[in-house]
């Protein structure tokens, strides 16, 4: 019997035997006291990679983003974000619950905000209004299909933020993918932001962990909020060791995930009833629209599950498939064959 082809998410990746061996041998200490040498090494490397003064290892991407929001704002502030972004849609209302701020979502095609629209959304300095304090961007953008935020547009947004005295945070959970695909360094992307978060447990294959980087003063505040959120993990060097291994061995191979996603997207787009905006297939995520198929997305997902292919319904008419460390060329060809047999003319 063929193994299940699981395309639901790149969070499904599991540590390899080599990664597990590195984890087992990791030197550890109490990270709440800043005494875990493996975590300290990881944070130092991330600071160097991003060009920031310091970095902080945290348990998840959501925690990284919410620590950043809290460290940059005060209760009553407003944060501008893109309408489909992770911070607005998938973080359980945390900006309101944890930081006491409200979000101002703005639609951005392919996840890219129009600078003029953002400028028009900045609140005037009047006591009647919440004060705009922070702009967040997402790169790559999950709900838009793994799209890459153009560097020129990021720079325009940075210039706008500087004119208005605003801070900027990058949700860079999949920034590794953007960097590998474009050849633009992590440091160049990060240089335009006051803080940046990145994830180790998606395409890089580590079991747990994200990181947030910024100025030394920002990380001091971030450390405080991590503690407040219950995020001090003590002897977590075993997890940092996995992240270090992932950085050394699993970054450049992301290009293979991108190639496989493109192959899958082009084939599915030829099937009747399935529409994919191939412009969005820039990294490892494929979003297909099933509106013309006569079936709801959850129904198609259930049918594919019976055939040994797992995807996820993103909405009643949208399905997401994500390539990752455990998906090879044979898996892609088998998925195409299954879908062609089932949905082709």
From TrEMBL:
Report the residue ranges that make up the Aromatic amino acid beta-eliminating lyase/threonine aldolase domain in this protein: 6-289
Q: Which InterPro entries match?
A: ArAA_b-elim_lyase/Thr_aldolase (IPR001597), Low_specificity_L-TA-like (IPR023603), PyrdxlP-dep_Trfase (IPR015424), PyrdxlP-dep_Trfase_major (IPR015421), PyrdxlP-dep_Trfase_small (IPR015422)
Q: CDD domains, alphabetically?
A: TA_like
The reply to whether Lyase figures as a keyword in the UniProt entry is yes
In short, the EC number is: 4.1.2.48
SUPFAM superfamilies tied to this protein: PLP-dependent transferases
Q: Which GO terms describe its biological process?
A: glycine biosynthetic process; L-threonine catabolic process
Residues with the N6-(pyridoxal phosphate)lysine modification: 202
Entry cofactors: pyridoxal 5'-phosphate
Family of this protein: Belongs to the threonine aldolase family.
The name this protein goes by in its record: Low-specificity L-threonine aldolase
Species of provenance = Caldithrix abyssi
């Amino acid at each position: 019997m063929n193994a299940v082809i699981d395309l639901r998410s790149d969070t499904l990746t599991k540590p390899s035997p080599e990664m597990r061996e590195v984890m087992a041998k990791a030197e550890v200490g109490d990270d709440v006291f800043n005494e875990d040498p493996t975590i300290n090494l990881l944070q130092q490397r991330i600071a160097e990679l991003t060009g920031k003064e310091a970095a902080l290892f945290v348990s998840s991407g959501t925690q990284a983003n919410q620590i950043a929001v809290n460290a940059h704002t005060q209760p009553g502030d407003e944060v501008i974000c893109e309408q489909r972004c992770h911070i607005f849609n998938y973080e359980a209302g945390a900006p309101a619950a944890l930081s006491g701020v409200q979000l101002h979502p703005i639609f951005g095609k392919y996840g890219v905000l129009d600078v003029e629209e953002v400028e028009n959304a900045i609140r005037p300095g009047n006591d009647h209004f919440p004060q705009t304090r922070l702009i967040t961007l997402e790169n790559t953008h999950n709900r838009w299909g793994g799209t890459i935020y153009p560097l020129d547009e990021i720079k325009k947004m940075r210039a706008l933020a500087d004119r208005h005295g605003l801070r900027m945070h990058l949700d860079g959970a999949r920034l590794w993918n953007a960097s590998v695909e474009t050849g633009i360094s992590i440091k160049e992307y990060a240089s335009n932001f006051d803080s940046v978060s990145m994830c180790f447990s998606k395409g890089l294959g580590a079991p747990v962990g994200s990181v947030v980087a910024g100025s030394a003063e920002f990380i001091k505040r971030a450390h405080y909020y991590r503690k407040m959120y219950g995020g001090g993990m003590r002897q977590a060097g075993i997890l940092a060791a996995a992240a270090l291994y992932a950085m050394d061995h699993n970054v450049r191979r992301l290009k293979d995930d991108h190639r496989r996603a493109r192959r899958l997207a082009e084939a599915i787009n030829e099937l009747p009833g399935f529409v994919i905006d191939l412009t969005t297939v820039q990294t490892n995520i494929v979003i297909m629209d099933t509106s013309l198929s006569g079936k709801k997305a959850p129904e198609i997902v259930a049918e594919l599950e019976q055939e040994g292919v797992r995807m996820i319904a993103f909405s009643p008419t949208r399905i997401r498939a994500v390539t990752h460390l455990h998906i090879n060329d044979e898996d892609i060809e088998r998925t195409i064959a299954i879908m062609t047999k089932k949905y082709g003319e």
